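Subject: for your reference before the review

Hello V.,

The reviewers asked for a structural picture of the protein, and I figured it would be easier to keep everything in one thread rather than splitting it across files. Below is the amino acid sequence we used in the manuscript, unchanged from the supplementary table.
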Amino acid sequence: MACLSPSQLQKFQQDGFLVLEGFLSAEECVAMQQRIGEIVAEMDVPLHCRTEFSTQEEEQLRAQGSTDYFLSSGDKIRFFFEKGVFDEKGNFLVPPEKSINKIGHALHAHDPVFKSITHSFKVQTLARSLGLQMPVVVQSMYIFKQPHFGGEVSPHQDASFLYTEPLGRVLGVWIAVEDATLENGCLWFIPGSHTSSPSWPAGGVSRRMVRAPVGSAPGTSFLGSEPARDNSLFVPTPVQRGALVLIHGEVVHKSKQNLSDRSRQAYTFHLMEASGTTWSPENWLQPTAELPFPQLYT
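And here is what came back from the structure prediction:
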């Protein structure tokens, strides 16, 4: 059942994340994988769009921020690649299906399989049990975490990229399409890092990615910086295929590089409580005339 119990709700509020094993069936996971296989097989990526995805700040700014391909992907289905998969001419050095870091950011709007998962009765029930009044879907991604070189994702808060006023209105929904293990790069969290506490006095968001004014370069920049964080505070969160992980917009999380020979595919999307919330006009991602943020409740 997708309805949270009072104890689950309390745990989510306390930790800033919550694991719901068995949220999706194996069949639903297979349907997503098959559909992604078709999307990748039909992928036609222009050479100048062969963007490498990186989470190291400088590379992030250079590779993504300066690229219109990334900045205008909020209402489209686009492809982002791992490092070292192209030669200097932009030709694939590995098979295309092994080269992709992620597909984003509007699978939920444009693809029937991902739309039906995102707006499923189960997800809607879950959102209602969290007390969301007017949730909208702001973005979605299919993440591959390829064997042997699926890149690490450095510690971050989702609200750094998806900033709202007030804070606390963004919720990540992360679904394991394959088992996520210690070996293949499962998520790691600092429990309670979404609130200020004696061990975590800061609270709020330490860094923000903002869009540059139209016509100026680079496309994005960062305000603030990620503080140094004690690695021992991170708790690994391995889950089985079909599990759903709820992620508070301000909880600190990361994932390590995938050094195993198995991929760690996941489908993830972000919800925002639209009632009484202002979406920052400085966020890289903006609703468009073609795609206003769709309502979750159908």
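For the response letter, the relevant points are probably these. The mean pLDDT is 90. The longest helix spans residues 26-41.

Happy to draft the paragraph if you're swamped.

O.
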